[in-house]
Amino acid sequence: MEYVNFGSAGVKVSPIALGLGFRGxxxxxxxxxxxxxxxxxxxxxxxxxNIYAMLDDTSQTxxxxxxxxxxxxxxxxxxxxxxxxxEPVGPGPNDxxxxxYHIMREVEQSLRRLQTxxxxxxxxxxxxxxxxxxETVRALDDxxxxxxxxxxxxxxxxxxxxxxxxxxQDRLGATPFVCAxxxxxxxxxxxxxxxxxxxxxxxxxxxxxxxxxxxxxxxxYTPGEAPPDGSFWSTKSREKxxxxxxxxxxxxxxxxxxxxxRGKSMAQxxxxxxxxxxxxxxxxxxxxxxxxxxxxxxxVGWRLTADEMELLDDASRLACxxxxx
Length: 325
Hints:
Layout: E1 4-5, E2 12-13, E3 16-19, H1 28-40, E4 45-47, H2 63-75, E5 80-85, H3 100-114, E6 119-124, H4 133-146, E7 149-155, H5 159-172, E8 179-183, H6 192-202, E9 205-209, H7 238-244, H8 248-262, H9 266-275, E10 280-285, H10 290-297, H11 306-319
Parallel strand pairs: 3-4, 3-10, 4-5, 5-6, 6-7, 7-8, 8-9, 9-10
Antiparallel strand pairs: 1-2
Helix pairs in contact: 1-2, 2-3, 4-5, 8-9, 8-11
């Protein structure tokens, strides 16, 4: 495993992180073994959030942090962990958002579940338009000064929102965002030109989530055909599946052809394309099985050629206009 700098920070992380959304996991013991296997294979970045739970069940808010906490008892010094705040964790008026009240309350809950005294990277999960950004920035900086988080970051922000946050942090002398976390793949690259320019100028790194577009780039799905029985997308509406995979026919054949030529899987080619982008620090693998983790790790240790990157870029640009988020 070749480790890279996490965004603008000096801390070194694996270019593939394990995400704990656990859309396909139903057993906490299996999920724990999955995390332990990933760490054993050299993945040292574990991406979590205070709302993540088994089977993406929002009624079990915090379950993924609890599972990760069991692993951290013996492996805390081996990993870099992230968590997130802002999304709703309950029905109350202060159970969501990026207010000082909510951030300070939720970081304590996350630390308790994670059984640790600090979170390495603490991200705002989404932009909160109801809270002054100055309040949010000051709260995050206070957590850094208290040692409860090491680095702040943001997720699902537009380039303008990232820029506004960085400007405020600079003006207030607050700790700046170390990274942005946004969706990015061959089938979804909305606004990447503006975001990438900002990341280059400010020295931030991108954590790319859904690099396989929730499995659509693995080769398991065929554009124009119904999802296989028992697959993740077989449980979703056909309308949503069609919207997400609308332009798969323009991208998947190119990915498949390169995969065959290289002796790689489609997933490995698609993920290699993501981590080959200099603006991307990390691609987040949402693996639900040990086999998926091992396959995705096959995306590191080699590089697509310039011609292959260009072929994939051209197919992706044509496909991604007007894509559903």
